[in-house]
């Protein structure tokens, strides 16, 4: 793994342009994502959560930075490592946790689970479990925006998140080509945590500097330190501005670390001790916390209070999820079709498929 | 409005081709709703590989008739994404064979989203594509893959057999809020038929009895229905009364219409262009077995394509594809009749 390229390029300058309140907000958000993800792992181990469960642990600065850049009018498409994005898009921890628990109160009514968080109101347009599956629809959403509104500072844009492993599939290249060709208002963000499951970027990509792939599609490609929340935010904001004002698609690569395995059941034995050490040393949550304390934005007591509040918030979410009802099997077919259709199947296993004539 | 019900007012009709019916319907829907746009390979300047979109670029411009590069997964998925934001894209995939390149977007995404996201999003997407063999296009370009899509909950799959149905089902598909796979057939594009003027909207999910009879039911769809009618009419001259059920919709499947017909005739043959094993006919046979077993006077038979990658050579292609002669022979067998004379059995 190209560890050198991943080490932090710059430290947060808390005395710079950002007000202390903003920095405090970012820390609160990072702390919430951290607490939520730790608890998700715990709930998975207790079999409260089923299926696959992929956590944003270690990626908190990336999550917060990207979500600080995106506007409410923009559309967000992500892969399956989506909990933190949903939380910061404005969905309550209750509804996100309830989805993981498979309850009716979940963001997707308990039908999607961890990988398929969706909320039309906040324009979180999914959570997708198939690697790269979100990229063509995200591109099409940008195509629709081109039909529906003019470019300008108030226009909406699409942010499409994808992992480093996703850059090798056809859908990535086909979509970037379409976006470049048709000048679509979209920002593709490669969240490069260095590992596609257990395979390093260097073992998977002939050009491991993934942002360079933008050159094939005549779009700007840039790389930013994903442990630097402000750098991520500023780069994403600038990219979104190009998308909304100039219809210029952008490829942004955000370098971060996955603190744990691919999913909660993965012990990540394939990782070298050095890589694990670097990942831990780069952990953005404690380092941002320390920086804010060092620069006087937060006191140790403030930071502790924030962490405790985040944890309490997540506890409320778990309680809500546990107490929420499970979906009723009578509603099994409720959402198969939007337009009612004659002879729509409705038989449960073993039931007759039709009335006997 | 529904073409399945009787129109009390007199409707004028014109005789046009299946191709023309599709073209006119696309034009009408582009005019009807500005959210409708067409997207696909070579549909603009080239006017479509089979000229279905002839003249539309000229009249509606490149935003409404969007030429896409050769990237089926990309542009089918892009159409899907546009549909998520309320557009009503109509995709042309050059042939059904190439839809396999886009199948992740169709099966893993378009078909799933509404259910998986608890009804928060609808996918008003139409994917038009022709299938069919018999044009010496060889194994990769001659497939009938309808069951691939008919198998998938969340999709609607229609397969019109006439110009009138091409119009009414395409209108219905474009106005439907779900992903609809619209199956055309290479050998039907130049077929002519009476098409009613004015707005015609079929009811998806309904089969039609296109010829009544009392001795045997032939169940078919798309190109097969035209062959079934030809055979039924030919046998009628010999005194047999054959009923023909045109499925029109492969998902949902109108099991009641099939069973009601077989209940009356007691005999059924499925005529299908796909391969036999696990094909459309397997589903129809199971339906008949479950629904009207007690009324059957003979086992249900299937006339389907030979299970081989379709060869190029005409002699082999002809041998592999189900023909009118094959169907007529099997109908006689089911009815326990003597084989026809050798000449009429020739392919």
Automatic annotation (TrEMBL), chain A:
Q: Which Pfam family, giving just one, matches this sequence? A: E1_dh
The record's section on SUPFAM superfamilies has:
Thiamin diphosphate-binding fold (THDP-binding) (SSF52518)
> What is the superkingdom listed in this entry's lineage?
Bacteria
List, separated by semicolons, the cofactors it needs.
thiamine diphosphate
Q: Which NCBIfam families would you find in this protein's record? A: PDH_E1_alph_y
Assembly mode: Heterodimer of an alpha and a beta chain.
Name of the protein in its database record: Pyruvate dehydrogenase E1 component subunit alpha
The species this protein was found in:
Cryobacterium gelidum
